[in-house]
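Severity: low
Component: inverse-folding endpoint
Summary: output formatting inconsistent between runs
Steps to reproduce: submit the following structure tokens with default settings.
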């Protein structure tokens, strides 16, 4: 490897926050037992928060952000990986507590890594990233819990909230691919975009953001909720018998008020999803699904950028104007 390489480094000195690309060497990388040549990383909402001002998620500066990355093992002190292995990293507080993937080389704990399936490229893996892993875990839980664990009827009608966001849009695509009739709830005027992803129906999130009755008409067999708050409460009241709701976000609020009726009169199940801390075994299984029978092509919904041009993308995602995915290419020229 080169003695020096580029990394995006954030720093906090007093009230002054800075973000700049610096030349560093591997002695700067202080965590982990596997050194990875990073090919691609991605931009998530959490990344944008950290890149803006640290978002109180970063406790020690200077710091290298980037919660997701994919690349090739350059050096390893672990018997789990050898030089040349292709890996994927998502979650485990990498990019927050530990140095992340916004660098041409990253050093990480071997227990955090998954071997990349051969059927997908590193770029395809980062088109998905944490958002894709969360979306597939939501879809998997919504369908499998009802159809397999509960031996229930097939999941046909599903609603996805925050459908224009990273997790929501991928959930729409996966559930549509699996044959579900997907209703997409969104705040954005992008009906054609959501229909191109596979959504059958489009509704405004504002129609759901109101006080829920104990029970409404059971319109949906399941739901993927990326929003939380009052919208989650409303969704719960609209789920039919033995339906499953997965919850993975709180942009609409951390708290919600519901009655016990959906749970005791319809047998509705509410399942929380935290893909970041999911076991490596589960992550490996999910990546295998995403590379094979649950594969979705995000190339038309993905923009490639160099790390030096990431500034405008940060503002878009924080203002809620980002549509699709942003993949960061860590080639020699950044």
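Observed output (run 2 of 3):
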């Amino acid at each position: 490897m080169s003695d020096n390489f580029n990394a995006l480094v954030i720093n906090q000195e007093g009230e002054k926050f800075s973000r700049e690309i610096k030349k560093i060497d591997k002695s700067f990388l202080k965590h982990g037992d596997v050194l990875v040549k990073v090919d691609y990383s991605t931009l998530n909402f959490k990344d944008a928060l950290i890149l803006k001002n640290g978002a109180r998620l970063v406790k020690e500066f200077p710091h290298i952000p980037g919660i997701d990355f994919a690349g090739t093992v350059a050096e390893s002190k672990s018997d789990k990986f050898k030089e040349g292995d292709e890996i994927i990293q998502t979650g485990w507080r990498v990019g927050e507590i530990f140095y992340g993937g916004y660098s041409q080389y990253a050093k990480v704990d071997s227990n955090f890594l998954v071997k990349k399936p051969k059927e997908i490229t590193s770029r395809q893996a980062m088109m998905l990233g944490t958002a894709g892993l969360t979306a597939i875990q939501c879809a998997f839980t919504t369908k499998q819990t009802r159809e397999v664990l509960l031996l229930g009827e097939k999941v046909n009608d599903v609603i996805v909230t925050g459908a224009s966001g990273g997790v929501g849009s991928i959930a729409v695509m996966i559930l549509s691919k699996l044959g579900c009739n997907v209703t997409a709830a969104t705040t954005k005027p992008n009906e054609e975009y959501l229909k191109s992803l596979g959504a059958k129906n489009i509704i405004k999130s504002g129609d759901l953001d109101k006080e829920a009755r104990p029970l409404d008409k059971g319109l949906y067999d399941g739901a993927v909720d990326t929003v939380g708050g009052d919208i989650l409460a409303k969704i719960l009241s609209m789920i039919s018998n033995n339906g499953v709701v997965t919850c993975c976000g709180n942009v609409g609020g951390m708290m919600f008020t519901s009655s016990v009726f959906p749970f005791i009169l319809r047998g509705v199940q509410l399942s929380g999803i935290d893909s970041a801390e999911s076991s490596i075994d589960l992550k490996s299984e999910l990546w295998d699904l995403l590379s094979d029978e649950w594969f979705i092509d995000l190339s038309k919904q993905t923009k490639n950028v160099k790390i030096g041009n990431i500034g405008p993308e940060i503002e878009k995602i924080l203002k809620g104007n980002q549509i699709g995915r942003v993949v960061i290419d860590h080639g020699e020229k950044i």
